[in-house]
Amino acid sequence: GSGSSKWSCLGVTAQKGHLVNKERGGVLVGFKPTSTDLAPDASYFSGPADGDGRCELVLGYTDRVVRAFRWEDLGDGTEHLMGQLVSLKKWMLEGQVDSLSVTPGPLGVPELMVSQPGCAYAILLCTWNKDPGAPPTSEVPSEGTRETPAARDVVLHQTSGRIHNKNVSTHLVGNIKRGHSPESGASGLFALCTLDGTLKLMEQADKLLWSVQVDHQLFALEKLDVTGNGHEEVVACAWDGQTYIIDHNRTVVRFQVDENIRAFCAGLYACKGGHNSPCLVYVTFNQKIYVYWEVQLERMESTNLLKLLEAEPEYRDLLQELGVDPDDLPAARALLHHSLYHPDQAPRCAPTGLQGPT
User: Fold this and answer.
1) What does each of the 358 residues of the chain score in pLDDT, given as a tens digit?
2) Would you list the domain boundaries of the chain?
3) Closest CA to 214 of 187, 191, 241, 195
């Protein structure tokens, strides 16, 4: 979720001792932390960050530092997993890191992205696989210069040449899918939002697909397929509960949660029915959590009854049987209006097929 600082408890594993739930006949498994980080972090990512298929843990801290870790097994223990988190790299950013994500780059290789103030973002280069035997490059300064290798491994991108507030808080979400096919996940789509109400959808590094300006303070950004067509919509939440769902064509659906929100997330969760469904989760300042499940829309774009009927194969045949030209839209609208609102009255200008004998 977004909107609050966290203390990290890294890595959990099951203990031998189990608690039995007699009422449901289930087994509740006890968990024990294997590694704990007491540094307050602002954001995190867990997953393959460098394209090698292995999962990394990437933490963004409130002091503008980002660190990458990987779990290293030290053997199988009898009580719990034996191992430790190994630091892979450290990056120092110019601005506050509010969120981080991974999105496919131009060659399909995952790129680690972090948000930067002013609707900007940075690509963090993952170089630990280039020389596995060398010490962490982020800790070794270059000779004759104050710049560390980690500083050179940060590529900053500004999404607009005109920035109204270069210090405004920014969030991003990457790897936005645009279909059910395996290739759709490598589209390189990502989105950004700012606290002053800017929303942008980008493709690859510098191709702006659309930009939207709203009059609400956006503090959280997620992605969620609410139509079931494989295209993930961008979901942004404001402090006052205003929520925006925007598709790839910039079609906007919005609604209002009637409380101020301190944290928000969206995803596929199993709330009822034993299956995952699109869910929106809100945490309020009144210590309440609201979960909206089965958040599904038939379509994002607006439509009307006439458009829906035109998609039905038998629609044109029925109009012709009633003496209405299917291509005569005013006549078709008049017939629909009469059928819906005045079914017991004779139409004023009845089509040929509806007129009585003369």
Assistant:
1) 444 444 444 444 333 333 343 344 444 445 566 666 656 666 766 766 666 777 888 999 989 999 999 888 777 655 666 778 888 999 999 999 999 998 888 877 888 999 999 999 999 998 887 655 544 443 433 444 344 545 678 999 888 756 668 889 999 999 999 887 766 556 789 999 999 999 999 998 778 999 999 999 999 999 999 999 999 999 999 999 999 999 999 999 999 999 999 999 999 998 888 889 999 999 999 999 999 999 999 888 877 788 888 888 888 888 888 888 888 888 888 888 888 888 887 766 545 444 444 4
2) 6-259, 307-354
3) 195
Phi, psi of 341 (to 5 degrees): -110, -20
Q: Tokens 């060659």 map to which residue?
A: 107
Measured CA distances, 328 to 247, 290, 317 (Å): 32, 49, 14
Beta-bridge partners for 114: 100, 122
CA 234 to chain centre: 6
Question: What is the CATH class of 6-259?
Answer: mainly beta
Residue 285 CB neighbour total at 10 angstroms: 11
